Description:
The complex is a heterotetramer, with 2 copies of chain A (613 residues) and 2 copies of chain C (346 residues). Chain A is 39% helix and 20% strand. Chain A contains 21 helices and 26 strands. The longest helix of chain A has 21 residues, at 182-202. In chain A, helix 17 (516-531) links the parallel strand 22 and strand 23. In chain A, helix 1 (36-49) crosses helix 5. In chain C, helix 1 crosses helix 7, helix 5 (115-124) packs across helix 6 (168-175) and helix 6 (168-175) runs antiparallel to helix 9 (282-294). Chain C has helices at 33-48, 63-66, 85-95, 107-112, 115-124, 168-175, 188-200, 229-236, 282-294, 312-315, 328-331, 335-344, and strands spanning 55-59, 76-79, 100-106, 128-134, 137-138, 144-145, 179-184, 205-210, 257-261, 267-272, 298-305. Chain C contains 12 helices and 11 strands. The longest helix of chain C has 16 residues, at 33-48. Strand 20 (459-461) of chain A pairs parallel with strand 2 of chain C, so a sheet runs across the interface. The complex binds thiamine diphosphate (2 copies), iron/sulfur cluster (2 copies) and magnesium ion (2 copies). One thiamine diphosphate (TPP) sits between chains C (61-64, 82, 106-109, 133, 135, 137-141, 146, 213) and B (244-246, 282, 306-307, 310).
Amino acid sequence: MATTHISPAESEAAPQHERVVNDLSIQVATVNGSGSQSSNMVLLRALFQMGIPISGKNLFPSNIEGLPTWFTIRASKHGWIARRKEIDFLVAMNAETGEEDVRGLDAGAACVYDEKLNLARLRDDLIFYAVPFDKLVAPVCPDAKLRKLVRNMIYVGVVARLLEIDMGEVERALRKQFKKKVKAADLNFKAVLAGYEFAEKNLEKRDRFFVGRMNENAGKVLIEGNAAAALGCMMAGVTVVTWYPITPSSSLCETLITYMKRYRMDPETGKATFAIVQAEDELAAIGMVMGAGWAGARAMTSTAGPGISLMAEFVGLGYYAEVPGVIFDIQRVGPSTGLPTRTAQGDVLSTALLSHGDTKHPLLFPASVGECYSMAIEAFDLAEELQTPIFVMSDLDLGMNYWMSESFPYPDKPLKRGKVLDAEDLNRLGGFQRYKDVQGDGIGYRTLPGTNHPAAGYFTRGSGHNEDALYTEKGELYVRNMDRLERKFETARRLVPGPVIEQAGHDVGVIAYGTTHWAAMECRDQLAREFGVQTDYCRIRAFPFADEVAAFVRSHARVYAVEQNRDAQLAGLLRLSLPGEEIGRLRSVLHYDGLPIDARSITDAIMTQEVGS
Amino acid sequence: MATTHISPAESEAAPQHERVVNDLSIQVATVNGSGSQSSNMVLLRALFQMGIPISGKNLFPSNIEGLPTWFTIRASKHGWIARRKEIDFLVAMNAETGEEDVRGLDAGAACVYDEKLNLARLRDDLIFYAVPFDKLVAPVCPDAKLRKLVRNMIYVGVVARLLEIDMGEVERALRKQFKKKVKAADLNFKAVLAGYEFAEKNLEKRDRFFVGRMNENAGKVLIEGNAAAALGCMMAGVTVVTWYPITPSSSLCETLITYMKRYRMDPETGKATFAIVQAEDELAAIGMVMGAGWAGARAMTSTAGPGISLMAEFVGLGYYAEVPGVIFDIQRVGPSTGLPTRTAQGDVLSTALLSHGDTKHPLLFPASVGECYSMAIEAFDLAEELQTPIFVMSDLDLGMNYWMSESFPYPDKPLKRGKVLDAEDLNRLGGFQRYKDVQGDGIGYRTLPGTNHPAAGYFTRGSGHNEDALYTEKGELYVRNMDRLERKFETARRLVPGPVIEQAGHDVGVIAYGTTHWAAMECRDQLAREFGVQTDYCRIRAFPFADEVAAFVRSHARVYAVEQNRDAQLAGLLRLSLPGEEIGRLRSVLHYDGLPIDARSITDAIMTQEVGS
Amino acid sequence: MATTVVPPRKTNRIGLEPAVYKGSKSTLCAGCGHNAITERIIEAFYEMGVEPHRVAKFSGIGCSSKSPAYFLGSTHGFNAVHGRMPSVATGTLLANRTLLGIGVSGDGDTASIGIGQFVHLMRRNLPLIYIIEDNGCYGLTKGQFSATADRGSVLKNGVVNDLPPIDTCALAIELGATYVARSFSGDKKQLLALLEGAIAHRGTAMLDVISPCVTFNDHEGSTKSYSYVKDHDEPLGEVSFIPFFGDIMVDYDPGSTTEVTLHDGSRLLLKKLDSGYDPTSKVEALRVLSESHDNGEVITGLFYVKTGQPNFLDLLNIVDEPLATLPEAKVRPPKSALDEVMESLR
Amino acid sequence: MATTVVPPRKTNRIGLEPAVYKGSKSTLCAGCGHNAITERIIEAFYEMGVEPHRVAKFSGIGCSSKSPAYFLGSTHGFNAVHGRMPSVATGTLLANRTLLGIGVSGDGDTASIGIGQFVHLMRRNLPLIYIIEDNGCYGLTKGQFSATADRGSVLKNGVVNDLPPIDTCALAIELGATYVARSFSGDKKQLLALLEGAIAHRGTAMLDVISPCVTFNDHEGSTKSYSYVKDHDEPLGEVSFIPFFGDIMVDYDPGSTTEVTLHDGSRLLLKKLDSGYDPTSKVEALRVLSESHDNGEVITGLFYVKTGQPNFLDLLNIVDEPLATLPEAKVRPPKSALDEVMESLR
Ligand SMILES: Cc1ncc(C[n+]2csc(CCOP(=O)(O)OP(=O)(O)O)c2C)c(N)n1
Ligand SMILES: Cc1ncc(C[n+]2csc(CCOP(=O)(O)OP(=O)(O)O)c2C)c(N)n1
Ligand code: SF4
Ligand code: SF4
Ligand SMILES: [Mg+2]
Ligand SMILES: [Mg+2]
């Protein structure tokens, strides 16, 4: 873990008295099941609407009610939206964690807290604002049962007042949040106002944090990665979806259900142009995907680590019998159950190699909600073009948190359905050989069950087969087939999304992928500004790696691969893929405590290693 | 695949006319289910009894009856017992493959064939011996139903006569084979004699292959790897065995059942000191091992690739919850079902990394039946010392074929049961912390359920836990625990069997493991004799790799890692483990057609690369 | 004579010859019950006049699971992984609801490793013909017990099966399958009729077909045995030898009992449901099964049928055309849809 | 006054206080049926005077599967992987047959992902108390349907459950479990009695306990629901809010029916088996279950019990002491044994 602090502690921190505008992180500490999610979303959205670059991250426990939860909002005029470790503005609502939360703050931070918690006594280098939530909520909400909920809206008002969030935007955000539930919105807004007015009257602004209108978000949307991926799947024309609930992946399919019911009912018949099935487990989910993909459907499932493990055998079948399918892995922490509600990039290596025998699978690494959308579309194209399972490696941070994004573009290319022969083709050709490499790309032609032609049928099996898909145990045919599959993997290398590279001839290279991207970019800025260390950058977007990745490594003396796991898994895939000479240049920055990686940790880790080199 | 032939085709072959004694390979081509197994075993055993180093390999199809099967016997005065590609002496009994079998022979080879097959017409550079099997069997075996079987004994006699196998040893071998079934033995021996007499009278010896008595096998045993492993398990004091049938692993547990019933019934009560359960599938088999290992039993299962894939999730639990267990992977060919009755070393990489999240597991690589026995014992010790699942990576070639070996030594060390505290310990200590690293080796203390002490109980879980085994989602505790597990893996590196190294300062190193060892050793001899290329050798016996492995690589300009898979899987583990500078020295020799690797293929592949370097 | 009499070619109602319904040559043991079932399947599809391209074949892993290669050779087939054929079949039928699915499994493939997927398939009432070729053992891995092995059966290595067999018919009925039957591989007439009924049924049709393994299931007392080795073991002492057998065939009337004498003299007591039996009551079906079990008989026939029950594809309300080949216009919503979603996210 | 009256400490027959049977504080939602079951388990072990160290606790994954942490705090427990608790429990009891095993699972953990291991556990009649805390949904992953959800239930996102619920009691009986019952989390008296019976039983004791999920299982028509949000949704519009409830308790007589009115006014019809019911006939038990299902009732009570049936450990003929701790002399055969084997291989 990158915990060494070798940099001047807070070199970028403004002097204590200076006004800090649009550059702060807010943390709301509550208890899960207490309904604070709406309040936090109203805050986040109001800032978003003010045109300020923001991100919001929900840190929640693996239970349903009663355990500590934190929501952090970052607003950054520089556009940095990775998690920041340092909290500037704490809203302490949870008795259980209040003391620890306060102790974790840097001097000069602000803390709004529930009067009852009596937190001000703990430190004298913070700015405290006590709020009598119970007293304020009573007149707003006569129904005692509902108070616990509405109570949380009060801090929205308090924070809005203290940070100077535009109350018009707060109300807009709140009404958007409650959609058509006008009564609920009215009640909640009353609570916001109560907080605002209390703060106006009773709290003297003493901290230095403010927000102000910007114009960075025009046309942008706010969406979770899982919803973005769901949209992508729908636009990719997915027809068969199978899933088994698991955090943090469930919301992908659940959101997809909502979208599909709305936009994918056949207007003529009112019937569904899709089938979505909650399977009995992940073994069944992937089996259904294999059956559907074999029959020509665009089929997918979505899961997390434990599900990936259970899919291992079937995915090997998919590789070897060459069946298309798309699998989303919304990664979470852990071997075994681990920390199921925390984020990680921990399945990269084992998923690339999933299943016994000589197997490997293409992986896509979306870094943004935009890529969750676009890579979902690409994944289905790739699966059908390559006739193999394709994995989209998202994570909890991306999948379940809200991220800003440009609007998603409508796809400008038709679906790529791959090499499928229909009855007409067969009439023309007289027949086909399922596993013959006709074009030298390692990919054979296939037919779909139901094709009305006597030469269409073939028998798919995971055991040894020749080019005609007939059973064989002949060694040389087995080798030929395996070599073709290897050739197909080379084709995959050309077809998958290539890296995004920023290169200006510096000595030091940084490699990142997925959500690590955001912290890596900010880290590069810190390295340059604070230490004068200029870096080149390579964001990997898929495995197998395009040749540019090897070239990038080759052209740098030291390359830091930054990732969110203990075992340097992407670096592992690089080690497996690169020529030996390049591997010596690789170093790793690893972060695996379950929280999204932050820039400072990377900067510290890189500088520690740079100093030594 | 190593198929290039750059060496002088048969540099070691003796001139056509010279007598070749105790240096030949015999192949018997039959149909499975036809009962040729006994005949082949009699031949093999007779040669073994004559004191000649031998090996016997059965190449059989994945069905029960009616498909081609080959049995190859190698006898080598030099002690080379790897498979030889070139067949010197063919017994062609199978109409279906007869022509192809004959076409595959090198000039000068001999072929005994069933008269009916009329094979002599195919080539004039071979020595053919036609045998009228049907005619010969009729008088020997009046019962027509049994003829098909007894018929195969006839070739034993023919071959014995032609190669000058001692008939006394043939009879001894046959009677050993049929054990107490004297009537069966008599009938079969009559058939052998009929063959012998026919050959004596009718066949003129024209080929140059002979055998003669040696004295290399004194005290040696002949055993399959799976039986040897079973013996090791029994001597290791295994108490809970769970399994699900799968080729080529079933015979391990099936043999174990036989041994345990004989040697592990409690003499006082007549009850079993073990439980062996055929589980409903591999998920259940590994689950039972986890439950039993947790409760303190020496627990094991045995499977092949598809089973390993199904065990992925549970094995991650074992890693993270730190539960001992031993898993035998008798590797076979394939992603998916592949070629289930052919051999490979194809699960190495994915098993080392089995399960989602940051996981890795110790692997042991037995190369001989002796090591199947000794590593089985070591595996149980390691599992309990390290409190983690341990994999023994055997393969079909080792597991299901007969190999010669010195007698297995009786264990000279007591069982190592690892860090287990009983009630007395707890009385003394007052309590314990399950996941605390007391000695710095990364290994905590555990207690077993049923321990009569109020502080004994703890709750085992695959989710985040602190040193007291209590649930936690705290990031720093998660990191601390993962770092301890990493430390434990370092301890494993010290505890697992180290490599066997033969080093004399040469430029070229060869790395092999498991069954590849035998062909690699013979290849080194070929390289030295035929090309004057001297090599050093490192036989890897376990993952994680002892430091000597890195040192070996470091001290050679070029190191050839020889293995039986397409994806250079052990080389992959080396790439993941070695410093970058060393990786450039690694080259691979890969063999993956499902047949056991042979020396000539390796020699060719190495020389092709050496010439280019 | 100048005229040649060409005998009329035998064809079915859609004009296809029997050969069209055959597959490649079986590689199973001679006399294996599975081969007899294959023949009945060929006959049934021929007789029913099903277009081969409309069918999709599925199986798991095992000797039984190989048999889809031996019928309907021109039809697409998918030999999946062990015990997980139901999910693959489900996926395919979701992708193309116009297909007629037939799955062949073994008792190991279904009742041991595959029981989870079996349970959920039955519950869904997926329109699929599901055949268990039930020999009470794992043929392909050389004869270990499956979960349908009879209690008290003994393997060659002395291992005894102490556990009660799972009655897949009772489970299927309990779980919601809508056509549930048991037959014997050698009962041509009954099996053919049950298969034809299954082809006509629109829901899960589960057929447990007792199908002796001639090679391995030779334990004393097994109701699925063609025991042989017992007598011949002594003179031969050969474990890898596979004897040759002809199929055992039976023909008996509804309501009656027939005792099949197997090669080794051991007996299998088959009882056929009465022709008056009413297969519409679950409770009655379960009672009959339980009773026959207690009597040591194997009761055969159609235990339960329920028509008109919506099947899984009906419940999902999917369009009539195969989802797999819907045109892009049907599966990619228009730009306006994306715009609408984007707008809602601003 | 100088005398202090110390009230006698409450202890059970082995002299332990109730507190010894408690575990750590529950992190489940207030009012969750699972908590009430936890309390009954504590009571039952206390009342039966079981030594805590003799017990081993097992579970899979889910809210329900967390509950073993909340009882018998000083006892070893193993929270396994999702749906595979039966195999872990089996392994442990093989290793140490002197342990008293109790497994807690959810309906998702058992009837969906775990049904395969459930089936084989029941078939083996492993001496284990197996409790399903049955709420018809996946609590921990936020309320999706499990395979015991009632047909016709509707989720908030409009998804309807069209599939029939799996009756785990009927399955258990069919498969060979020897103590099979159903109860309701709020029925203190019945549940306690059934648990005590289960503790005393030597074979698989399967208890399906209806246990409402206060937070998610609030669909109309669900028999496992405490619906709430319906009324309050409009003023609040809050999805992440978890309301607070007290437990719902019932008390009714054998043979009678009680209607539980849930928070939202929806009803659950519980019917208790008649005190004259004879729980020794499988067929009768299955009939009663099927009938109650047809009547829309949830029948509770002990449906089936069979004593004297050898359990899995008996069948395996293992020594009486725990295998786990047999001394080396018992588990490593002497040199003569190895020599004998070696000799046979020469
Ligand atoms: C995951 C997995 N485990 C084990 C096997 C090995 N295996 C192949 S077939 C078979 C049993 C087949 O038995 P059954 O389904 O009854 O078919 P039968 O051969 O008796 O017709 C087994 C265990 C496998 N292929 N895959
Ligand atoms: C292999 C795997 N798949 C999915 C999950 C996610 N998961 C956790 S709990 C759960 C369902 C629990 O439902 P149930 O057993 O009914 O327990 P409840 O929470 O309702 O008490 C699921 C699907 C998981 N942990 N592991
Ligand atoms: S082994 Fe048995 S099941 Fe398999 S083909 Fe032979 S007879 Fe049939
Ligand atoms: S979510 Fe439901 S099942 Fe889980 S603890 Fe809360 S009430 Fe219980
Ligand atoms: Mg079978
Ligand atoms: Mg539940």
